[in-house]
Structures
1.
Amino acid sequence: MTVTVAVDAMGGDHGPSVTIPAALAFLEETPDARVILVGLDAPCAAVLTKSRSSARDRVSLQAATEVVAMDEPPADALRKKKDSSMRVAVNLVKDGTAQACVSAGNTGALMAIARFVLKTLPGIDRPAIASQLPTRKGVTTALDLGANVNCTCEQLVQFAVMGSALVTAVDGIERPTIGLLNIGEEDIKGNDVVKQTAELLKASPLNFYGNVEGDDLYKGTTDVVVCDGFVGNVALKVSEGLVVMLYDFLKTEFMRNPVRRLAALAAFPALRAFKKRVDPRRYNGATLVGLRGVVVKSHGGADVLGFRYALLKAYTEVANGVLDKIAHEIAAMPAAISPTAAVVAAEPHA
Amino acid sequence: MTVTVAVDAMGGDHGPSVTIPAALAFLEETPDARVILVGLDAPCAAVLTKSRSSARDRVSLQAATEVVAMDEPPADALRKKKDSSMRVAVNLVKDGTAQACVSAGNTGALMAIARFVLKTLPGIDRPAIASQLPTRKGVTTALDLGANVNCTCEQLVQFAVMGSALVTAVDGIERPTIGLLNIGEEDIKGNDVVKQTAELLKASPLNFYGNVEGDDLYKGTTDVVVCDGFVGNVALKVSEGLVVMLYDFLKTEFMRNPVRRLAALAAFPALRAFKKRVDPRRYNGATLVGLRGVVVKSHGGADVLGFRYALLKAYTEVANGVLDKIAHEIAAMPAAISPTAAVVAAEPHA
């Protein structure tokens, strides 16, 4: 099966100078993939013609006349820019020309456009943002990382279903363990929504581990960590801020005087290996999960390597049938989880 | 002025073997302080008699017959253990014998007992847990870190007032900047409670900076960061988990082979300086703020140095009149913030 990925070539801080080389590198390592670059004609053609990549023949260009700005209000991007590179790329998934779409552009706009164009999967009220984080044991998939600031317990259960299916598809883990982010492990802890969510998860066919705390995220206690988008976004941003601060402190200490700088030289292989291990580029690519199509959001500042990882993520999700897996797991849930779940359960799956 | 600190000598993972040496070390560096050790007679006397500290004469022993267990439900600790070391220590603050109380015991029990015995300050609905975190610029005081899972916007504004007064008292900063933890800087971001809180803070006499995001916590963007206890607790625990993971990775890389281990030796001064800079013991001591008395919670696993920092924190808060400062700032707030604020404003301050 060939997987076609629509790439918003204009998105992100660097646009075509990063997205196009990344797309070609991705194609070189993924022989059964194709890419449709969506963007303004001139800048895309300029980068593309310079390429001597062997994968050049698996790239096609689709013109778009507008670009969504990084700080543009999502509602404006949705209503006023019908021919943006982002919108056209999502349209290609909608009409079946592509199976996935990747953009490093404005997150809010991508979510608004993807939700409007693709709609959510049956049984899913709202899409969520899911991402992998490095842990002491491997990786954890956390969601929602910022799409939904207020969540009902049914929605949190839907996130659990989506996270479970995503981990099965991407990491090949059958019945991944699900942790519910809380401020204590005991059942009595947390707010009412979290407490009720725990009850629903216990009664579900999912492999529910129980409540987990913030530090469990990096301990790798569970394969999936579920939380609302406010808490998830804070957890993610706090982590980013802390890593930057710690790197900064480490660098300062190693640069403090000539003796220390000499020590840094000796320590370089260890420091480089350390940095590589937590390299955020390796974890680049957040999935907008719950839609009728695979949509991956790359970090806006991603370089070629980072954007390539985001493309690979989209490809892997399609190749492993993540959408079918979510539909299947939602159908297996008790009817109470979602107003539409009972209907879905009665339908045959694709 | 002499400041008397009541110490729950039995609290924490190590009890008197840590709390008593820490109390003596604290007294040696703080000539105008006194300590009342509260605990079971025999174990406290055993540690105390071995001491040759010059500060020995500024320590007195107050017997208690019970100890609150680290995993005891707070309601049980409150109702069934009226003669616990924790309860007696808080009682000493209530009756004016001591001006502050420090415990490394069960956080929930300490909060329940302190709230029941001391009550909240006029104009404060609920106490919060406040702590200092290291940042790229210095320190930030964050609250609430876990006492209140559901907060109204009025309560969040009260946290801002308490945080502001705390920073003025402890760090000597007049009009500290206040950040409201959110998932975006724009006014339209976040849930309804956060949006309304921002409006109230804008209209207040506090030095409100605006919304801040998770990474601003460690950038040190503002002197105070306000959030509800669920989000604050997750942010704190996520940070703890991340630091442990990064240390672990760093250690693994430096121990991977003999050459790397040699490099680690050369890098030791830099690594030690780095570790010292983020040493959690230096930031030990969370303040239960908003009570009619100074109550500081030490980390349960704190060693002598860590517990000494918690004692010093309690002392500093008392010496700099933190309670008066909170009362003063609450009185200066518009009446809408708190049902009782209008009454407070009409009362003379101590």
2.
Amino acid sequence: MSYTVCVVYHSGYGHTARQAEAVSEGAGSVDGVTCSTIPVEDLFDSESASWATLDGANAIIIGCPTYMGSPSSAMKQFMEASSGRWMEQKWADKLAAGFTNSGSQNGDKQNTLVDIATFAAQHGMVWINLNLMPGNNSSGGSIEDLNRLGASLGAMAQSNVDQGPEHGPTDADLKTATALGKRVAESAKRWG
Amino acid sequence: MSYTVCVVYHSGYGHTARQAEAVSEGAGSVDGVTCSTIPVEDLFDSESASWATLDGANAIIIGCPTYMGSPSSAMKQFMEASSGRWMEQKWADKLAAGFTNSGSQNGDKQNTLVDIATFAAQHGMVWINLNLMPGNNSSGGSIEDLNRLGASLGAMAQSNVDQGPEHGPTDADLKTATALGKRVAESAKRWG
Amino acid sequence: MSYTVCVVYHSGYGHTARQAEAVSEGAGSVDGVTCSTIPVEDLFDSESASWATLDGANAIIIGCPTYMGSPSSAMKQFMEASSGRWMEQKWADKLAAGFTNSGSQNGDKQNTLVDIATFAAQHGMVWINLNLMPGNNSSGGSIEDLNRLGASLGAMAQSNVDQGPEHGPTDADLKTATALGKRVAESAKRWG
Amino acid sequence: MSYTVCVVYHSGYGHTARQAEAVSEGAGSVDGVTCSTIPVEDLFDSESASWATLDGANAIIIGCPTYMGSPSSAMKQFMEASSGRWMEQKWADKLAAGFTNSGSQNGDKQNTLVDIATFAAQHGMVWINLNLMPGNNSSGGSIEDLNRLGASLGAMAQSNVDQGPEHGPTDADLKTATALGKRVAESAKRWG
């Protein structure tokens, strides 16, 4: 049997797009799993074939920037567009996970993950957490540690506000994103 | 001296607009306070005069529906459009408060209030809470009690999903909204 | 193969204990699943055999009152006592779910569910949501609807503050709790 | 006229105690403001004179470690002990603010600030935010920047898990705490 994971993301300046690619890479690296990546803009048209891709997926991983303390407006536009499927509980029992990027180390990114997890809960989906111990939390730690930002509900990344996506998110944050993608794909196989 | 309160709101179907009117009524009922009400759509144009109204206000009260577990996309669009003012911390030390409406009793409305409060925090604003004890929480309670939904960070309202804004939010929820508006206006005078 | 679900709960006055029983009843009703119920006080002794029960469980469902806007102190005492297991990630990949009761309709119960879900995330557990559409949200709705409080991350219950546990939580809230227990048990079988 | 600020804190290993001292130092540095610092343990006895100190304060600043994703059990014990005052809304219209420390950079500290802010909201208090732009978010940034963790609802600090309080929180985090204390004291004077 084969499994499919979809990564749905919004990216304002390209940083979160890189994080999304890293998540996809992780998901796609798992035997028997294929991963597709969908920018939210593709879903603004309710006739887009990408909706069917989502409907057929075993797992949906959702990511966007944290803007002004919560998920970006474009991501929320996708969430609202999914309300017809919510009414039918069409996505119930799929797996879900989340990721977010912002300029600051914390930047209220937890709110974004809580909102994405709540969205998944409304859809009756099962939430896959990051499952990585916090890094960079001891005298021997460094910003190159996996999960250096100490997230738990999903993957967090930080990108400098004065630099383009070729400079950020940091390598550690991209590796963390890849680990999340891999975990979701493996969980999809186990969940069946 | 005179004080000004602005109510910035988004409403998808008119229910939250009624809640916004109730908030405005409360704010405007306080001597020496004038209140203006701005739909977020007016702020999508960065040249709109409504931005100057916000810049001049002593307090900004922000409200929107809770859609799919968090603030509506249109409200987030306004929040993102305010990022230039955030960079300058132009609104620091203004007062802020929040309200939200949704179809269900709870409907994850707390997430919306947390996100609005966090937005206000990023702007360096001071957060005015609802300051009403929970109603409808004892054997003698009823759905006509003030703050019958038991909110604390702001005002919550519930409107039936199969009825238009002429039927909802309930009277109790509108009175709760009015109490929040009044409290913010009085706080603006005290804060000076 | 047989599966085990543990319900860990704190109850100050007996209302949440009734909710915990309802959750247990739901979990235990599923073929091939046995359910045990552990009051948090049993876990205050690190030598208690109940810790081994938790270690051996396929799923852990956690519930407590919402006191002053977040999980009760006693529940937090258990969470902190689990930190040794967290260090070893001994509970990673178990399933988890949550429930909470308070006197008011909302009462900031969402915070409690977010905190329990975050706790589960730190342990690397997989989060099972309530998966029930909101009830009591239309003109034909009533407080006897399943999920009448409109929760999504877990099960919520409301009990009048002037009445003992023989009067609350309401029947609808107890049935909602039972549905959560059943869902977690079925998910444990599917997760394997 | 003179104003009083109380810092109520819990500290498990001394790191948060240092953060509390820094907050106090900031509050006490403001002309006309006196600041007292109360460990939560002093408030476990309902006859303690510290309760009267709180009752008389213009502002209460609350801080604790983030343990397993939310406020520490000891802090929650204090919150629950304040429920008699909540019933009377005895602290309504006081100012409130919050801070938290944990081992990891993020460590779900946002949950703790949300819970403290919600607690203050239940008491009808007015919430004073951190009001510092995020630091360490550009190519020229460093971990010595004020608000290097990018918090907004309150002050965050990070302390290495393998080092005692003589090594952490970092200087930047302590300065951030001091800035919060100062802001609350100044706000107390303005609020009157």
